[in-house]
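Re: that backbone. C-alpha cells:
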C-alpha cells in the first residue's frame, strides 16, 4: 500500500492511493501558512513560457524537465514529450507516447512519471505502467522501450552504460543503455505501507547508492547488481502507521567521499561512502531532495521549513519558517539564491546567507510540484498543468 502527499484547498494532508484507510474516513489536516509579504529586491524576468500537454493534473508526480546543449526536454503524464529551444521556448520536436488502441478510439495515457533524464544522444523517461522509454534527442524517435519490474516513478539515472530504475515495488533494475535489455535486478525490500515515491540512485566509483522504503540506504555494485552494504538511517516509531513511515525517497548526494541523505520522519545523515557507516545524524525528515554546496546543506523539511545546515555535523545555520505546509518543491541553488516553488504557484527566492526572502512571484495558478531546473543562465520550472517557464535573474 502506497501513500501520496495531496494538496486539498488550503490544506496539506497525507492521502491513500489505494482503497484502504488509516483514518476511518477522516483525514488529518494541517492549515497552510498564509503567503508571506515580501518586498522584492529584484524581479526575476520571465524569458518565455510554453505548454507541454496537460501536465500531471491532480496526480502526485515529480515529472520535471531536463536540460542539455541549449535544449529543454519536458513531458506530460499523458505521453507528450517535447524538445524546446532553451533561448526562446520554441518547439524543436514533439512525440506522443500514449497508446492508440484503434482508429475510432481515444488514445490511452502513457502515465509518464518521475522526470526526464538526458545522457549522450538519448533521453530516458519511465511510466506508472512499468515501461521505460529511450528517445533520440535529435528527433524524438524511439530507440527502445522496456517493461520493468514495477511502476517507474523515480527519475532514470544513467551511469557506466546502464540506465538505473528504482521501481515502486522496491526493485532496483539496471537496463543496458544501448538496447534496454535488463542487466540485473536487486530487491531492496519494502514494508507493507510506504509513501508514494522512490529514491533515484546516486552513483560513484562503480556503485549505486539508493534509499529504500524500509528506512535503509543501500550500496549496490553496478557491474552485477551485488549488494555491497546496507545501513538503516530511520527506525519506525510512533503511535500511528503514518508516524511509523520511514521511507528514504530522496536522491542521496555524494561529495568528497561522503553520502548525505534524509528520510521521512527520520534523520538527515552523513555516511562514509565506502563502508556505509554513519558519521553523524540530525533529527530532521523530508521527502524532498537536498542540495549540498560547499560546506552547506540546503533542505525543505516535512513541515516545509527551509533550512541551511553545516556539513560538518548538521548544525543549523538558519531556518525559514514562514512557508509552513505550503507543499514546497525541493530547493535549488540558482545565481547565489535558494529557490523553492509552492502549491499555490509561487516561487520564493531566499538569501543563502540568512534565509531571508529577497523575491517572490506568482508563476502559475495550477501550482508547482517539481523542483526548478537550472539550465545554464536560466531557471526552468514546470507547473502542474504542463506549462513550462524560463526565468532569468
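Recovered sequence:
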Amino acid at each position: 500500500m502506497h501513500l501520496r502527499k495531496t494538496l486539498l484547498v488550503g490544506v496539506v494532508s497525507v492521502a491513500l492511493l489505494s482503497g484502504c484507510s488509516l483514518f476511518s474516513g477522516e483525514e488529518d489536516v494541517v492549515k497552510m501558512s498564509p503567503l508571506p509579504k515580501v518586498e522584492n529586491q529584484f524581479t526575476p524576468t520571465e524569458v518565455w513560457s510554453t505548454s507541454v500537454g496537460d501536465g500531471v493534473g491532480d496526480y502526485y508526480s515529480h515529472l520535471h524537465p531536463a536540460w542539455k546543449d541549449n535544449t529543454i526536454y519536458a513531458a506530460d503524464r499523458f505521453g507528450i514529450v517535447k524538445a524546446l529551444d532553451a533561448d526562446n521556448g520554441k518547439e524543436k520536436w514533439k512525440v506522443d507516447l500514449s497508446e492508440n488502441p484503434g482508429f475510432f478510439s481515444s488514445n490511452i495515457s502513457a502515465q509518464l512519471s518521475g522526470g526526464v533524464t538526458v545522457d549522450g544522444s538519448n533521453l530516458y523517461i519511465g511510466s506508472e505502467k512499468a515501461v521505460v522509454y529511450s528517445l533520440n534527442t535529435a528527433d524524438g524517435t524511439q530507440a527502445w522501450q522496456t517493461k520493468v519490474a514495477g511502476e517507474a516513478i523515480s527519475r532514470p539515472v544513467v551511469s557506466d552504460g546502464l540506465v538505473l530504475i528504482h521501481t515502486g515495488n522496491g526493485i532496483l533494475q539496471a537496463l543496458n543503455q544501448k538496447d534496454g535489455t535488463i542487466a540485473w535486478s536487486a530487491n531492496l525490500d519494502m514494508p507493507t505501507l510506504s509513501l508514494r515515491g522512490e529514491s533515484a540512485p546516486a552513483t560513484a566509483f562503480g556503485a549505486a547508492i539508493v534509499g529504500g522504503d524500509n528506512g535503509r540506504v543501500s550500496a549496490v555494485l553496478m557491474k552485477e547488481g551485488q549488494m555491497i552494504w546496507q545501513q538503516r538511517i530511520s527506525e519506525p516509531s510512533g503511535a500511528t502507521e503514518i508516524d511509523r513511515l520511514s521511507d528514504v525517497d530522496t536522491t542521496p548526494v555524494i561529495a568528497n567521499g561522503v553520502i548525505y541523505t534524509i528520510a521521512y520522519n527520520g534523520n538527515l545523515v552523513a555516511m562514509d561512502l565506502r563502508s556505509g557507516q554513519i558519521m553523524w545524524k540530525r533529527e530532521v525528515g523530508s521527502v524532498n531532495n537536498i542540495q549540498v554546496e560547499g560546506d552547506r546543506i540546503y533542505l525543505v523539511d516535512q513541515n516545509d521549513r527551509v533550512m541551511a545546515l553545516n556539513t560538518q555535523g548538521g548544525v543549523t545555520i538558519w531556518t525559514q519558517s514562514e512557508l509552513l505546509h505550503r507543499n514546497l518543491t525541493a530547493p535549488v541553488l540558482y545565481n547565489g539564491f535558494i529557490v523553492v516553488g509552492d502549491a499555490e504557484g509561487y516561487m520564493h527566492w531566499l538569501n543563502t546567507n540568512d534565509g531571508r526572502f529577497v523575491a517572490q512571484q506568482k508563476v502559475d495558478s495550477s501550482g508547482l510540484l517539481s523542483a526548478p531546473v537550472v539550465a545554464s543562465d536560466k531557471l526552468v520550472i514546470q507547473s502542474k498543468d504542463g506549462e513550462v517557464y524560463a526565468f532569468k535573474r
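The mean pLDDT is 89. The radius of gyration is 20 Å.
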